[in-house]
């Protein structure tokens, strides 16, 4: 079901779940035990492909005094529990009460429920509503014994359930529930008295004095005065949100205290929202009821007209609560609970208020889960479960939907069995030859390139409104070896788009649909805008990335050369002895950091947030770009101090524990945000660690030396590195004397190119200043763009390299890259290296199990994993040879095979297999393509300060 056709006329199922029925009959004697059931998916290729775990399932055993039952396996624990309870009901022969109440029966049961609530028996019950009844008996004067109808409507679930039978609009209209309660109370005119003026109900026959005395004796001994911190949200946008203190005591009804704060006589004129934030909390919005209410004996009552409130619509309070609120509102955490008869209360500060706002934004949910609002960012890529820090994407999306009162997201995973014999490559040839592969080409492109490989997974997610209208559908084409990875990645796509939308909620429908398409998302504008219409009235809460900004430094820090790629950097490194290990893309780093709000001269500073051990993965976008830019320039045990752009006041207050001091500092107008960071440790990617454990020098250096040998033999003057990343190859080449005069790097990652530029700029300028250059390089350029698209500036180079890059693409794209390079760029020599999958068993047997291993997976050394979580495929020697040979034949190149690490005539060959393509035709290349790449950085020996 994708769309809902209006609201139902009433509940269609039994009002009690199977678990509720079992609880009614057995109470605590019913014991549920849930255990995990693991299914293994057979892949049919032992020795080459990793056995895949099936989805995580749960089975529940229910032990009752007379017998026990066991459920089937389910994906969710609660479904397994309900299934076990349902089996027990069937075995007991219990017939659940069908939902066959007509409207008149519902009215009668509603009246009966009211009669019970005002009974002596209910007074001593532990129930959120019973506290209000006891407090009503302690009220003085003509308010004594009166219980606000709003409290009854809010805190009794059975009342609300019965009201659904009478009116289908009840769930979306809290005032309508009140009107139905009043109508039911009139049927009990001989027992209950309704005061229209007080909008409250009272028992006609007073409770016996001994009952009241008994209740008073059992009441807790509260202090004479209770001060509760709360937040006032004004309806006027010209006024600011501020903290208020509610002064209550054991003899005063807390709703009367809130009423006084809002400027009305007593609790009878106070309404309150549903829970704000966590469902288990008692944080609610309190606001004034309409000034004039007329009771009409009909189920189609005045209460539908919520717009009859007088005063301004409080857009912020309305957004937080999901119901229309006019006038000022009080946000407080106070009330009665199911746990005891005591009044529960806790302070709610401005910090908590702004965190509630943060929890309605995907990036805010992630930041809060990491307790790092200023430092963390919602990552742009989901890598491995063990490298991900904070709440997982699926959980964040579920939280977001709950916060915005949407239905739980519906994930649908499909397993795909890839076609055998390198389907991606074969499908590419068919497509180029004119075959119609519009449907199957996408399937083949996402296959894992191994003979007889196992299933891969795709996932689709749908988001519905509470009325079951489909508002968003995300169906990516990417597939993954693990089902859970497919789920998290599709959730992350939706989160990243929602984050962008909430940052610019006033975008047109055309902008909205266009931006969503880039994330493989289809939105249904009419339903989507309806659900998020209130967002456009909110002030802009900028939860976007902070950037580096020039500012003042602590005198103990020294300045570092500014980087032309970044914003002005004012950073310093403390003089310390470092290990020399620096982070690279994919590294897992751990830092300690402190962030302060300070005045320019640092006369005053307030601590905002910090962590003794804060981990994140370089290159995944998991932290502020400012923090990552500094950390990537550091070595282990090195420290730095830098300033960041001052974020919005709302963000600062969301982390500030002393809001008064922070507000004072912010009002000075001379504030800056200062960060102190120390790099504690660097865990290099698993692929690097495996190689370092077995090879000396490391494979990465051996690949560079292999490329260097061919550069020298060919006397190449120009080189282009496809997929240059952070410039490790280009940097390494500068340490040797070669014939190269021009070096070029191309990559899709702006972040990686920024790091490459820093390193190359420093190395090249250092050689010039030393007046003893170790190479003949006269120019260097870094381009940002796809290596799958032709650009005339990349054509005709003497030598091109593509080292350990193609395995990060989908296999289809790797094939497309080969055709593009040899048919359009036409280098004289092309060197391509990629992992030899057959060598993985040796690498992984020489390496202990590391953090990247999925803790839920059993270690099986005889089965080989890919070397890096980002690898889309890894080829055997035969597969690589077939790919390269066919490529060379199509484009008039010769190809020879070699490698580094291992021995060619000894199984299983080289660790990194290399193909060297040599162009047969030496005529000049005629390039006539558009220039789609952007120049990110350019250096010339004639202008070394560029």
Automatic annotation (TrEMBL):
Cited InterPro entries: DSRM_2 (IPR056755), Hen1 (IPR026610), HEN1_dsRBD2 (IPR040870), Hen1_Lam_C (IPR040813), La_HTH (IPR006630), Methyltransf_12 (IPR013217), PPIase_dom_sf (IPR046357), PPIase_FKBP_dom (IPR001179)
Designated name of the protein: Small RNA 2'-O-methyltransferase
Keywords: Magnesium, Metal-binding, Methyltransferase, RNA-binding, RNA-mediated gene silencing, S-adenosyl-L-methionine, Transferase
GO BP field: RNA methylation; siRNA processing
GO terms of molecular function: metal ion binding; peptidyl-prolyl cis-trans isomerase activity; RNA binding; small RNA 2'-O-methyltransferase activity
Keyword Magnesium listed: yes
Segments forming domain HTH La-type RNA-binding: 100-211
Broad EC category: transferase
Stated family: Belongs to the methyltransferase superfamily. HEN1 family.
Cofactor(s) named in the record: Mg(2+)
Enzyme Commission (EC) number: 2.1.1.386
Classification lineage: Eukaryota, Viridiplantae, Streptophyta, Embryophyta, Tracheophyta
Catalysed reaction equations from the record: small RNA 3'-end nucleotide + S-adenosyl-L-methionine = small RNA 3'-end 2'-O-methylnucleotide + S-adenosyl-L-homocysteine + H(+)
């Amino acid at each position: 079901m994708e769309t809902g056709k209006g609201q139902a006329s009433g509940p269609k199922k039994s009002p009690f779940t199977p678990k509720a029925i079992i609880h009614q009959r057995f109470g605590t004697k019913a014991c549920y035990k849930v255990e995990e059931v693991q299914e293994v998916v057979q892949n049919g290729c032992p020795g080459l492909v990793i056995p895949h775990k099936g989805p995580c399932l749960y089975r529940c055993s229910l032990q009752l005094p007379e017998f026990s039952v066991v459920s089937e396996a389910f994906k969710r624990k609660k479904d397994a529990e309900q299934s076990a309870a349902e089996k027990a009901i069937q075995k007991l022969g219990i017939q659940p009460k069908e939902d066959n109440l007509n409207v008149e029966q519902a009215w009668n049961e509603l009246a009966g429920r009211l009669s019970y609530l005002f009974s002596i028996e209910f007074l001593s019950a532990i129930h959120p509503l019973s506290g209000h009844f006891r407090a009503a008996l302690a009220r003085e004067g003509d308010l004594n014994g009166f219980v606000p109808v709003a409290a009854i409507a809010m805190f009794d679930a059975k009342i609300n359930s019965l009201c659904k039978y009478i009116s289908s609009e009840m769930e979306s209209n809290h005032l309508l529930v009140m009107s139905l309660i009043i109508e039911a109370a009139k049927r009990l005119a001989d027992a209950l008295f309704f005061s229209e003026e007080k909008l409250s109900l009272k028992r006609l026959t007073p409770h016996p004095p001994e009952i009241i005395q008994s209740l008073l004796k059992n009441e807790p001994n509260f202090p004479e005065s209770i001060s509760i911190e709360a937040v006032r949200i004004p309806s006027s946008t010209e006024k600011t949100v501020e903290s208020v203190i509610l002064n209550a005591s054991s003899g005063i009804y807390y709703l009367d205290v809130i009423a006084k704060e809002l400027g009305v006589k007593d609790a009878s004129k106070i309404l309150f929202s549903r829970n704000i934030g966590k469902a288990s909390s008692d944080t609610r919005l309190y606001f004034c009821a309409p000034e004039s209410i007329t009771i009409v004996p009909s189920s189609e009552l005045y209460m539908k007209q919520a717009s009859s409130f007088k005063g301004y619509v409080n857009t912020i309070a309305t957004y937080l609560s999901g119901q229309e609120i006019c006038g000022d509102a009080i946000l407080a955490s106070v009330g009665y609970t199911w746990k005891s008869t005591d009044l529960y209360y806790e302070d709610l500060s401005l910090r908590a208020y702004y965190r509630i706002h943060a929890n309605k934004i995907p990036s805010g949910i992630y930041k809060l889960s990491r307790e790092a609002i200023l430092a963390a960012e919602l990552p742009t890529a989901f890598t491995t479960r063990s490298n991900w820090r904070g709440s997982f994407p699926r959980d964040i999306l579920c939280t977001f939907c709950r916060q915005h009162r949407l239905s739980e997201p519906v994930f649908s995973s499909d397993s795909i069995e890839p076609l055998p014999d390198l389907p991606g490559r074969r499908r590419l040839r068919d497509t180029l030859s004119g075959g119609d592969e519009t449907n199957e080409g996408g399937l083949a492109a996402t296959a894992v390139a191994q003979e007889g490989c196992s299933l891969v997974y795709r996932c689709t997610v749908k988001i519905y409104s509470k009325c079951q209208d489909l508002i968003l559908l995300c169906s990516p084409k990417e597939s993954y070896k693990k089902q859970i990875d497919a789920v998290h990645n599709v959730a992350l796509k939706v989160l990243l788009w929602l984050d962008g939308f909430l940052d610019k909620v006033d975008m047109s429908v055309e902008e909205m649909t266009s931006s969503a398409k880039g994330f493989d998302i289809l939105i249904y504008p009419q339903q989507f805008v309806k659900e998020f219409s209130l967002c456009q009235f909110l002030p802009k809460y900028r939860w976007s990335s902070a950037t580096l900004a020039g500012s003042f430094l602590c005198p103990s820090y020294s300045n570092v050369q500014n980087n032309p790629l970044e914003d002005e950097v004012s950073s310093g490194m403390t003089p310390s002895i470092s290990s020399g290990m620096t982070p690279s893309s994919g590294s897992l780093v751990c830092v300690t950091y402190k962030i302060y709000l300070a005045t320019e001269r640092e006369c005053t500073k307030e601590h905002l947030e910090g962590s003794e051990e804060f981990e994140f993965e370089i290159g995944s976008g998991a932290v502020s770009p400012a923090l990552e830019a500094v950390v990537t320039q550091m070595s282990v045990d090195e420290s730095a101090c830098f300033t960041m752009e001052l974020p919005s006041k709302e963000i600062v207050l969301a982390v500030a524990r002393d809001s008064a001091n922070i507000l004072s500092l912010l009002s000075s107008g001379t504030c800056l945000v200062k960060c102190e960071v120390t790099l504690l440790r660097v865990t290099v990617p698993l692929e690097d660690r495996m190689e370092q454990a077995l090879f000396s020098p490391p494979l990465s250096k051996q690949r560079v030396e292999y490329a260097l040998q061919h550069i020298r033999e060919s006397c190449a003057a120009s080189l282009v590195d496809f997929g240059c990343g952070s410039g490790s190859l280009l940097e390494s080449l500068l340490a040797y004397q070669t014939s190269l005069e021009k070096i070029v790097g191309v990559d899709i990652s702006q972040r990686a190119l920024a790091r490459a530029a820093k390193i190359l700029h420093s190395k090249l300028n250092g050689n010039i200043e030393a007046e003893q250059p170790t190479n003949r390089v006269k120019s260097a350029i870094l381009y940002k763009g796809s290596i799958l698209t032709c650009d005339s500036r990349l054509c005709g180079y003497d030598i091109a390299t593509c080292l350990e890059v193609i395995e990060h693409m989908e296999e289809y794209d790797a094939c497309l890259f080969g055709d593009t390079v040899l048919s359009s760029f036409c280098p004289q020599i092309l060197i391509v290296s990629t992992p030899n999958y057959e060598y993985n068993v040796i690498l992984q047997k020489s390496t202990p199990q590391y953090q990247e291993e999925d803790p839920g997976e059993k270690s099986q050394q005889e089965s080989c994993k890919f070397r890096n979580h980002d690898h889309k495929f890894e080829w055997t020697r035969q597969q690589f040879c077939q790919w390269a040979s066919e490529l060379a034949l199509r484009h008039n190149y010769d190809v020879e095979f070699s490698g580094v690490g291992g021995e060619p005539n000894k199984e299983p060959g080289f660790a990194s297999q290399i193909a060297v393509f040599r162009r047969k035709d030496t005529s000049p290349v005629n390039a006539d393509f558009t220039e789609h790449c952007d120049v990110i950085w350019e250096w010339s020996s004639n202008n070394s300060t560029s």
